[in-house]
């Protein structure tokens, strides 16, 4: 590939991007697509439906970019929560560090690479791309100190920025904790592995235990019921409800729904069925003796103060560590009820099984990846494997196989992986949705780094140049050298990968093709003029964080070896910054958040990328026989690892435990303001196992009006909660689940910002 | 080596052992050696000095064996604490498991090995030892299922026993915690990294913080002073004291010493110097404004209840995890004051440095070990390295080098290692003596396993049979095969190692040669008739636990490969059981204990040994081409690892954290009995930074009388505390430090049990 080909490719991709972005700017002005592009807004405000039609609705505009750019950090925090902010900080970090890296590498390293060998240079557009890589520098060159210097500058810059970001985010997390005054989770703990006493129910055992040992701070508790058995009851109830509804067409039914707690929960089936006296009396039916048998050994226990809950969750309770296991509770909307019923004694073995399964999955996924990659090199394959010779005879088949099939297979693989990892994380026994998503995120990162970065490099190396057999990899000493040889030669591939996968994925993210097609399909093919409210989706951190981190890894590892990748990467990150801000502001809702727990993941992955960059550079300096550069790189690696350890000591504990003094001060303030009573009353009803979560449950107090309109839509509660489960699992093919029109509410007063402008 | 040679060697060693044991039984009856063999008793009781002389004092007897055997577990617990009991349980576990292993292997595996190949057998005494190893079984033998069965039985038996021991010891630990009502450490936490506030002293900052956040439970605190600066003050004071003492010869000085706390602390220099008014008023002089500058950012904080202290030590206090670091406090006699002053921000880097240094030390110690080992094979070395040819010419030199030098070098190395590891652990920043000793113990175990087991096997393999170069070891897949080939052939060496190092080390432990010689030297050469009280020593867990575990490792790995080792090992463990019981009962004192924290170390090492045994067996079955046995071994390894994980979940948390409910119940009981006030008064004076620890401080309440006699000996306090430091570091060459006669007290009423019997 030469420079002009690369530029052509970049041009084509730029045009695609600009086109898609323009299309988006038009689409978002169409009132009929409001449900696709303003899920977040829909969930928040009552908007007017039909604006006036005007020509300006068809003219592309850059207004959304401006809006995304102008949104302040506070606004983003309000809408997307701390996690969104952390994700955007990761993007900003990447922009900053790669700006520095681009400057250094393009003006210092690139010329050195280009003039690294005495050779006849063609005109720049005709020049092959590998002339710009470190592969072009001759062995023993005295100019390798410049690469080493660039390595130092990039590493130091990255570490400094990481430090400030980590410090900043730690502060934000602390402030977030201190500001979340009305969070019921602060007062609540999840008690698992309650021991079974013959004569008592679990509930009695909990009462006895806590009123014995935590008499002064224990408030009350709430048992968790076996999901399966109660769910069956719920389904029966739901059927009854439907029959009832369709038979009598009583429209005022919704207004009778009982509300459960202040978490914005809506009707339970039981309250809807209040006409039948034997199942009536709302929650009290759960306390019946028949349900007692369906209690699982898990309970939510509420305390009078935050500090008491914190302390109870951190101490080892019983001399038998397999009983009375106490964890801090997730938020009501974050809690993952079905995993709460998993017996605690199985959790450890599940966890081991999942870790083993994940490792096997990640490693053996290498086989299809390598196979797919090797298809690109069909001509070389033909020499090695005679089986492919027949295929090679037919030209059109060859084109199909080399040009089209690999990327399709690759894309399919990439869409399969996050749901599978999500399934693994579910099996692992996470008790919160955010925890499950974070765990998935980590697994996907491992997967991508191994199967996208290493597998491609090694396949390239094996097929293209060095005929390395997989068996050679057994020896760990070979790996730096192998990487050092392979990375510069695969840099071209990574460049096009950034251009296509990176840029195009952002366009896809923006235009949301799948919901868009579904919307159009329903509207124009099925001629269903009802507005479709898709389930609102939470931000897919488990696919987006790994993607951004993977591009970061590519950037770091290629920076001094093949600096040409950096400008494209920088463009990617700037676009990502705008697009993700826009999406957070408009599309995704924040039902739950982890409180910035993604940052340690980002930090650790970035440190891994840095060290990998340095190890590869070490290998390159070794191959190029530059002992000075080699010698200077070793302390850099040690310093980077020490820096990481320092950050782990200095910041990470805040992400593992909640600082006690903050809780004490919050308690004191509540006491001082006399809010304590009120809060305690609220928390006792905050957690409802058998209720549909409202669409914007976090913001109950501010947005009571809009919530009432959106909540009471008559969606059967457990259908909605099933959607929540599905949503997370099918996240990469986002918005695949749709509610049947009849069950969907009609927000009739949409007032969208763009429509207002007009 | 053939069987008769082995039996001869065993016979010689038996005779040596019997001789030494008899000698010991005579020596221990000599009143002049009381200080050597009854350090523990000396520290406890007032004994009469001079018994009657009789012929029975010169007749060997087995009475001590009977006494050691008969001592009950309660007695051992009272004298040696939980750690001693745990150590003895480890020995008992070894006896049990190797009894089973011996039975299985001698009656099932040994005959199969012996008749494994069709060959002409000589008479048993002339048979070579390798005929009894698995090396003698022919490839593809159908009888390898028996080895696999033996492997299963030994593994299952070991796991079962380990499980019961772990459960038992967990119970004992819990009971020990619940029984230790008057431990001041339960009420105390160590606060490190107190932030420096410009206008306040550290002490004021602590007061403010705890009376702000822990107002209801905070009792008081005690600052830790910079050891260096105060020590200088102390030394000056001591000089003054000496001058004062020798000038006036005031013998009644000792009776005036002020006592500090109930921890059995004795005089501070300041109280001795109470004649000089400007330094007088005991502890109050520490609070002077000049000393305020010598405060380091560490304090001991006392709480009103155990639960409050526990909770404070487990929570993360401040949003900055590098300030207000709270750990649970060690016992007053266990605390390691000088490490408390190490700035907390340096601890993590010290820890990393020590880990790196330890790894380097362990790995590079391989070089002298391999060199030493290779000297044994001088004839083979001569072929490989021409340098040795000249030496080989002179016969006597060769004998010296092959027969004598290696073991001497080896012994010297082995005596150097524990003090170096202790030094490492000190630098690591352990705040308790028991923690430091445990950390040393772990390091020594790693060292022994690597440098004694692996290094010897690999050296043997390299020189003797397979010409493996060190570079081949880079590939981890080779290691099981290599071990499988090398272990049977090194079994002979290990057998003699057990006979010599194992049996002889027990004799040494019993007869305590170094203190004995010192005693005799003082008594008969220097003609110093004064009795010598050596510093009493705590049990050297950091050398003895690793030794027992190493022999366990040898037993497991050799059991099915070379079962002849097992009887010798069993004898070793039985002797160890008797000898260590005797030593715990008579020689060592228990100044501090870790509360059974050695058991997880024992457990993990045993699991490691088991897995290693299985992996080696896997390699052997692979080499012997027995696919059935190979296939059956794989699930065994997985099950063993799962079992370990289960134990880690089920028992280990109790060894990391203290169960909260126990603390709450203890608090409640104290409250109920009205002891709380009294205890709170005591704890405030329990910790004295500048005092000599009494010899048997734990048993203060029971043994007040004897303590008074032993404590007030006028030893300058910091000289004694220096001795304590030295004692731990120089432990393998035990009792090297002696007090000058003039400073040593005279316990004049010794009543030893044997003397009483007469």
Keywords:
homodimer, two-stranded antiparallel sheet, 6 strands
Topology diagram in text:
The structure is a homodimer of 758-residue chains.
Chain A: H1 3-27, H2 34-37, H3 39-44, E1 47-48, H4 63-70, H5 73-114, H6 144-179, E2 188-192, H7 202-213, E3 218-225, H8 227-248, H9 269-272, H10 289-292, E4 295-303, H11 306-314, E5 325-328, H12 337-340, H13 344-364, H14 366-376, H15 378-384, H16 388-393, H17 395-428, H18 433-466, H19 478-511, H20 513-525, H21 541-559, H22 565-586, H23 598-623, H24 627-650, H25 652-656, H26 660-673, H27 676-684, H28 704-711, H29 717-729, E6 749-750, H30 753-757
Antiparallel strand pairs in A: 1-6, 2-4, 2-5, 3-4
Using a beta-carbon cutoff below 8 angstroms, give the protein chain pair with the largest interface and the number of residues from each chain. Answer: A-B, 39 and 39 residues
Low-pLDDT segments, ≥5 res of chain A: 249-287, 692-758
Helix content of chain A: 55-70%
- CA gyration radius of chain A, whole angstroms: 29 Å
Largest sheet of chain A: 4 strands, antiparallel
Which class best fits the helix and strand makeup of chain A? mainly alpha
Note down, in words, how this protein is organized.
The structure is a homodimer of 758-residue chains. The first copy, chain A, is mainly alpha-helical and 758 residues long. Chain A contains 30 helices and 6 strands. The first copy, chain A, has helices spanning 3-27, 34-37, 39-44, 63-70, 73-114, 144-179, 202-213, 227-248, 269-272, 289-292, 306-314, 337-340, 344-364, 366-376, 378-384, 388-393, 395-428, 433-466, 478-511, 513-525, 541-559, 565-586, 598-623, 627-650, 652-656, 660-673, 676-684, 704-711, 717-729, 753-757; strands at residues 47-48, 188-192, 218-225, 295-303, 325-328, 749-750. In chain A, the strands form 2 sheets. Chain A has a 4-stranded antiparallel sheet, sandwiched between helices. In chain A, helix 13 (344-364) packs antiparallel against helix 17 and helix 18 crosses helix 19 (478-511). The first copy, chain A, is globular, with a radius of gyration of 29 Å. Chain A starts with a helix and ends with a helix. Mean pLDDT of chain A is 77; it is low at 249-287 and 692-758. The A-B interface holds A 170-171, 174, 213, 310-311, 314-322, 348-349, 352, 474-477, 642, 645-646, 649-654, 656-662, 664 and B 170-171, 174, 213, 310-311, 314-322, 348-349, 352, 474-477, 642, 645-646, 649-654, 656-662, 664.
């Amino acid at each position: 590939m030469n420079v002009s080909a690369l530029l052509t490719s970049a041009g084509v991709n730029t045009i695609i991007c600009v086109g898609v972005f323009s299309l988006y700017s038009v689409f978002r002005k169409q009132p009929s697509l409001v449900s696709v592009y303003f899920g977040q807004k829909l969930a928040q405000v009552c908007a007017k439906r039909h604006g006036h039609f005007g020509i300006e609705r068809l003219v592309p505009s850059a207004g959304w970019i401006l809006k995304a750019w102008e949104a302040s950090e506070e606004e983003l925090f309000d809408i997307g929560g701390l996690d969104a902010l952390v994700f955007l900080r990761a993007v900003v970090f990447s922009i900053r560090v790669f700006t520095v890296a681009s400057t250094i590498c393009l003006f210092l390293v690139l010329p050195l690479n280009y003039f690294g060998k005495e050779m006849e240079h063609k005109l720049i557009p005709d020049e092959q791309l590998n002339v710009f890589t470190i592969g072009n520098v001759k062995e023993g060159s005295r100019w390798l100190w410049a690469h080493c210097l660039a390595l130092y500058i990039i590493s130091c810059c990255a570490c400094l920025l990481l430090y400030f970001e980590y410090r900043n985010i730690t502060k934000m997390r602390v402030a977030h904790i201190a500001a979340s005054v009305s969070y019921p989770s602060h007062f609540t703990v999840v008690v698992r592995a309650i021991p079974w006493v013959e004569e008592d129910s679990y509930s009695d055992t909990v009462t006895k235990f806590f009123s014995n040992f935590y008499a002064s701070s224990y408030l009350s508790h709430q048992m968790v019921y076996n999901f399966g058995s109660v769910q069956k009851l719920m389904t029966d109830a739901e059927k009854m409800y439907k029959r009832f509804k369709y038979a009598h067409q009583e429209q005022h039914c919704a207004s009778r729904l009982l509300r459960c707690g202040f978490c914005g929960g809506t009707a339970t089936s039981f309250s809807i069925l209040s006409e039948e006296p034997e199942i009536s009396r709302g929650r009290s039916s759960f306390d019946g003796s028949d349900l007692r048998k369906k209690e699982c050994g898990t309970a939510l226990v509420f305390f009078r103060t935050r500090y008491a809950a914190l302390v109870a969750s951190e101490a080892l309770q019983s001399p038998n560590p397999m009983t009375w296991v106490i964890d801090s509770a997730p938020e009501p909307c974050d809690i993952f009820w079905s995993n709460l019923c998993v017996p605690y004694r199985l959790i450890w073995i599940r966890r081991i099984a999942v870790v083993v399964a994940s490792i096997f999955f990640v490693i053996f996924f290498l086989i299809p990846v390598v196979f797919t990659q090797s298809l690109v090199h069909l001509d070389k394959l033909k020499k090695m494997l005679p089986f492919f010779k027949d295929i090679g005879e037919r030209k059109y088949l060859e084109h199909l196989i080399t040009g089209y099939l690999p990327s399709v297979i690759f894309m399919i693989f990439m869409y399969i992986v996050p749901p599978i990892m999500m399934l693994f994380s579910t099996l692992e026994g996470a008790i919160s949705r955010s925890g499950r998503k974070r765990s998935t995120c980590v697994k996907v990162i491992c997967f991508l780094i191994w199967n996208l970065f290493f597998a491609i490099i090694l396949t390239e190396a094996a097929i293209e140049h060095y005929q390395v057999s997989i068996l050679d990899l057994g020896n760990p000493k070979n790996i730096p050298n192998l990487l050092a040889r392979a990375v510069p030669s695969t840099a071209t591939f990574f460049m096009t990968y950034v251009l296509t996968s990176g840029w195009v994925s952002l366009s896809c993210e923006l235009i949301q093709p799948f919901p868009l097609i579904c919307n159009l399909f329903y509207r124009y093919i099925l001629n269903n003029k009802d507005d479709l409210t898709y389930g609102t989706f939470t931000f897919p951190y488990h696919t987006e964080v790994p993607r951004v981190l993977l591009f970061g890894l590519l950037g770091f590892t290629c920076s001094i070896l093949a600096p040409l990748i950096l400008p494209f990467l920088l463009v990617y990150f700037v676009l990502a910054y705008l697009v993700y801000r826009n999406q957070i502001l408009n599309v995704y809702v924040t039902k739950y958040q982890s409180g910035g727990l993604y940052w340690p993941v980002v930090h650790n992955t970035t440190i891994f990328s840095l060290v990998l960059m340095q190890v590869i550079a070490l290998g390159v300096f070794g191959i190029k026989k530059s002992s000075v550069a080699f010698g200077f790189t070793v302390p850099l690696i040690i310093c980077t690892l020490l820096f990481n350890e320092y950050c782990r000591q200095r910041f990470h504990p805040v992400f593992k435990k909640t600082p006690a003094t903050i809780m004490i001060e919050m308690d004191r303030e509540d006491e001082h303001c006399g809010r304590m009573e009120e809060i305690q009353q609220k928390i006792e009803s905050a957690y409802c196992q058998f209720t549909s979560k409202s669409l914007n449950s976090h913001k109950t107090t501010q947005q009571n009006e809009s919530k009432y309109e959106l909540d009471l839509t008559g969606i059967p509660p457990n259908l909605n909660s099933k959607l929540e489960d599905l949503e997370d699992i099918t996240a990469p093919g986002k918005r695949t689940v749709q509610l049947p029109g009849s069950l969907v509410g009609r927000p009739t007063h949409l007032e969208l910002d763009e429509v207002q402008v007009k």
